[in-house]
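Q: Convert this sequence to structure tokens.
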Amino acid sequence: MGDIQCLEQVQRAATKLVPGLKKLDYGERLKHLGLTTLEVSRKKGELIEAYKILTGKENVASNKFFEISGNTHNLRGHSMKLCVRRSKLDVRKHFFSH
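A:
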């Protein structure tokens, strides 16, 4: 079992400790507490980090992580469309930069 799944189980158990929420399902408990799943939080953090790298707010060369699409005629108002790299391995598919 992955680390996120273990942490998610801890969060799931902790939300049951809040008085009055024990009988609600996990999604409802999260909604009442103003929380999201850890998977959603992780993805949000990755998107924020990608934005910071692409806009130069991080001291990291963006070309080491991302490739900007050469197709600029259909970008709906922005020039930061990323190329999706193909991968044969599942491990690579789930890397931050992929």
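Residues 4 and 42 are 9 Å apart (CA to CA).
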